[in-house]
């Protein structure tokens, strides 16, 4: 691989980390354009959507090179987005040694700012807060906490062998609905609706929806529409899981 190809691959690596961890398309494209300038390419054209990045550059020798990167999964880790932004600023300031950049990228990829305990705690706190916010009682809040912990445990297991978020949401929504309905059966004073609302907020694709609006406002209509459609499908999958369990169990309650 020539040095120019290595530089392009490095730029795509940075763009991929941004896109797969919750950055909007406009930020990804702007970062890639700035990096292309920092690496002394004569021109840099990039097209990014939520499933791919295509980059075409004109090298100092007037060669035109195109590389593409397929994006298979988008998650949320804004700490990695922040770290990659800091690295991009260093590159734009003159740090263009590919070995140094590769080393820093490896460190960023291995960075996990929150321990598993903190993530479980955040799930529990979020579910409890949303349950109270939407009008649940303290009993509803307390019951929503173990369901939130179960959702996190199941989600980690699903992520190890499944990359389809729609399937994940159907399964997770079905589990939380089942647990809430069983809880109402065991504890008559429990309001299963409030428990379900509090826990289901953990699955709502809020960031994807906000990014889609931002992309359309910034003129990236295609990526905005695709992101919006993805967010709607994920929300629909949550409803499917809920309705399926309710249809099976509602008549017994």
Characteristic terms for this protein:
mainly alpha, 8% strand, three-stranded antiparallel beta sheet, single chain, 253 residues, 3 strands
Summarize, please.
The chain is mostly helical and 253 residues long.
SSE blueprint and pairings:
Blueprint (H helix, E strand, L loop, with lengths): L2 H18 L4 H14 L4 E7 L2 E7 L5 E7 L7 H15 L5 H13 L5 H18 L4 H22 L5 H22 L5 H9 L5 H12 L3 H29 L4
Antiparallel strand pairs: 1-2, 2-3
Helix pairs in contact: 1-2, 1-4, 2-3, 3-4, 5-6, 5-8, 6-7, 6-8, 7-8, 7-10, 9-10
Q: What would you say this structure looks like, in words?
A:
The chain is built from 10 helices and 3 strands, in the order ααβββαααααααα. With 253 residues, it is mainly alpha-helical. The protein folds into 2 domains: 3-110, no CATH class; 116-252, no CATH class. The chain has a 3-stranded antiparallel β-sheet with strand order 1-2-3. α1 (3-20) packs antiparallel against α2 (25-38), α2 packs parallel to α3 and α5 packs across α8 (192-200). The protein is elongated. The chain starts with a helix and ends with a helix.
